[in-house]
Amino acid sequence: MKKKAFSGVQPTGLLHIGNYLGAIRNWVGLLNRYECIFCIVDYHAITVPYDPLSMQEKILQTAIAYIACGINPDKCTIFVQSHVPEHTELTWILNTIAPVGRLQRMTQYKEKITKAAPLPFSLPQEDEKAAKMGLLDYPVLQAADILLYKAEVVPVGEDQVQHLELAQDLARRFNNEFGPLFPEPRTLLGSAPKILGLDGKKKMSKSMNNYISLMDSPDTIRKKIRKAVTDPIPLFSKGVVFSEQQLAVTNLLTIYLCFTGKNKEEVEEHFQGKGYRELKDELAEVIIEKLKPIQEKWRSLESQPDDIWEVLKKGAEKCRKIAGETMKEVKDRMGLLR
Ligand code: AMP
Ligand code: TRP
């Protein structure tokens, strides 16, 4: 039997090339070697303020993005987290062994609560701004996603490493307390685990508005890349090279490298004697060319939403079977089954 791989993306809108290069592209490479389960994690997406009216549209868009990027639904299972209630059930169980202090120290939690910073004094209406329980519990839900399917590998970007360490820890704690049941999931990072945004500073992300979407038009891509921040060329520098001191340019070169399949030496050789202008012009054209087939597939899928919902329905049915089995074992171990 093949080992299981599990991963997920939040349905927060159109995906960007950071999601693609950091995660989804690597999922494609696992399709033949693992039994793959890819989730659209809507319960995670509601831990921050969101628009209920556009949620179903975003779920559909995320499913379309998976398939357009090469996640062939005939070779894996794609489903929506909230269609499989066992995710929240296992979350509750794991809550009983998850250390609160550890959750409070999670980097993403700390970043998110400082964005919605509560005032230093507490008035009842300030509850509105206070950190919510779901946000704190986010990594436990993520652990439940993975353990429910006894997944052994989890392909993600670098920002998920800390969350996955918690999932490993919770698997270990459960196994120690109630007897071995869960494999410790291994984090699988790809070759570009952290793509920076076009500001050259922060991680590329929807919320920072520093991204290229998978569906950006050629003109938008050209404009965005032209405006991308570059580092000042240091004195005596060889120009366009990968360098720890030039993170913004290194990031552009990394995106070029990922999309062309060249290695670092080949990329540096290619840009030898050239300047940032040439780098940007060529990079924009490479991105446009590589996104073209994804965008074409996207458009054809978009015109058949019923087929996509059908894929998600079948996926949920399959996952409920596996999840139900795991929950029986979990409850049995914990003395909750008669
Ligand atoms: P999210 O959009 O936060 O649900 O992320 C979905 C997947 O994309 C996760 O595996 C992330 O680690 C990955 N990811 C998100 N942003 C980036 C980025 N800028 N660089 C690399 N991977 C990323
Ligand atoms: N937290 C992940 C992110 O934002 C998404 C996610 C939820 C996930 N559950 C998961 C990723 C389980 C891997 C495995 O990127």
Write the layout of secondary structure elements.
Elements: E1 4-9, H1 17-28, E2 35-40, H2 42-45, H3 55-68, E3 77-80, H4 86-95, H5 100-104, H6 107-115, H7 133-148, E4 153-156, H8 161-178, E5 186-189, H9 218-227, H10 247-260, H11 264-271, H12 276-302, H13 305-333
Parallel strand pairs: 1-2, 2-3, 4-5
Helix pairs in contact: 3-12, 4-7, 4-13, 7-8, 9-12, 10-12
Bound molecules: adenosine monophosphate (AMP) and tryptophan.
Tryptophan binds next to strand 1, helix 7 and strand 4.
Please tell me the overall pLDDT.
Answer: 94
> Pairing-aware structural class of the strands and helices?
mainly alpha
Radius of gyration: 21 Å
CATH architectural label of the largest domain: 3-Layer(aba) Sandwich
Fourth-level CATH superfamily of the largest domain: HUPs
Shape: globular
Helix content: 40-55%
Q: What is the percentage of strand-forming residues?
A: 5-15%
Highest CATH level, the class of the largest domain: Alpha Beta
Number of domains: 2
Under CATH, the topology of the largest domain is which? Rossmann fold
Number of strands: 5
For the sheet with most strands, the description reads: 3 strands, parallel
Strand order of the largest sheet: 1-2-3
Low-confidence stretches: none
Spell out which ligands are present: adenosine monophosphate, tryptophan
